[in-house]
Amino acid sequence: CTGGPCARWPLGTLTANLLASGLLAALAGLCEYDVFGEVAADGNGAWYAEATLKGVGLGFCGCLSTVSTWINEVNTLLSP
Question: What predicted TM-score, i.e. pTM, was given to this entire model?
């Protein structure tokens, strides 16, 4: 959107944040419904899959949403 009321909206940041939120919700759903099998208390089971999904969710999705916001704010501060 190059003109009109949406010209000042940070659409790239909004898109990145929505994508990160959607991916994090999907990963949380996979963990919640034991898609990879039940996690056993004795260490046997799919604990590694759940840990990987949580790591990807927190690492990738958190970085995607945080960095997109930071870049947008830096661009806004540096623009004349």
Answer: 0.66
